[in-house]
Amino acid sequence: MTPPSGMNDQPIALEAADKGNRAAILELELLPEQQEFVASNAESLAEARHDDEAIARAIVAAGRVVGFLMYSAPEDDDEAIIYRLMIDRREQGKGLGRAAVAKALEEIAQLSRIHRVSICYEPENEAARRLYAGFGFVEQGLDEDDEMIAVLELGG
Ligand SMILES: CC(C)(COP(=O)(O)OP(=O)(O)OC[C@H]1O[C@@H](n2cnc3c(N)ncnc32)[C@H](O)[C@@H]1OP(=O)(O)O)[C@@H](O)C(=O)NCCC(=O)NCCS
Questions:
Q1: In what residue span(s) does the N-acetyltransferase domain sit (predicted)?
Q2: pLDDT per residue of the chain (156 residues) written in tens, 0 to 9
Q3: Residue to mutate, 14, 92, 118, 148, ligand 1, most ligand atoms under 8 Å from C-beta
Q4: Distance from the CA of 52 to the center of ligand 1, in angstroms?
């Protein structure tokens, strides 16, 4: 997946969330007003332990864990869902969220069965809306929990 031009400046890696980076993931923080936008990383890691389809990733920049994301790409489906993304409050605004989404889309695009990626966010989450719109995600409307669903069709 090609990110919007000139927007992949931040070298980041996605690493499997495991015992080695668990403490660093749990130390990541959001701004108070962002906390309602995404489940805590403690909840997400607990959820991932019990869900074989959850793919949990530490977002690593310059050797440090700066964020966390989680997605699923079920074996029997052609759609992947990115359902958690956060960048530590001290690291926001540096292009890391965009770089992490680009990397996640690259990783997902390797799975040839996957033809579309969906995401959801609170309708008032302007940062998420703009971030995802930049990749071409198209808003579909609110789901039953009043969260905005947006979908990106993968090319090819
Ligand atoms: C959303 C989030 C992951 C963005 O991460 P980030 O590293 O700060 O974002 P980037 O620096 O890569 O910015 C990429 C684009 O996102 C959008 N964006 C990021 N922060 C924004 C803000 N405060 N207001 C408006 N748009 C914003 C912009 O379009 C920006 O591109 P631009 O700088 O060219 O305008 C981060 O703000 C975050 O963790 N928020 C709390 C959790 C959350 O809302 N997660 C998403 C829903 S699950």
A1: 12-155
A2: 545 544 446 699 999 999 999 999 999 999 999 999 999 999 999 999 999 999 999 999 999 999 999 999 999 999 999 999 999 999 999 999 999 999 999 999 999 999 999 999 999 999 999 999 999 999 999 999 999 999 999 985
A3: 92
A4: 28
Q: 98, 124, 143: which to mutate for ligand 1, most atoms within 8 A of CB?
A: 98
Domains plus CATH for the chain?
12-153 (3.40.630.30)
Which protein residue has the closest C-alpha to ligand 1 atom 24?
127
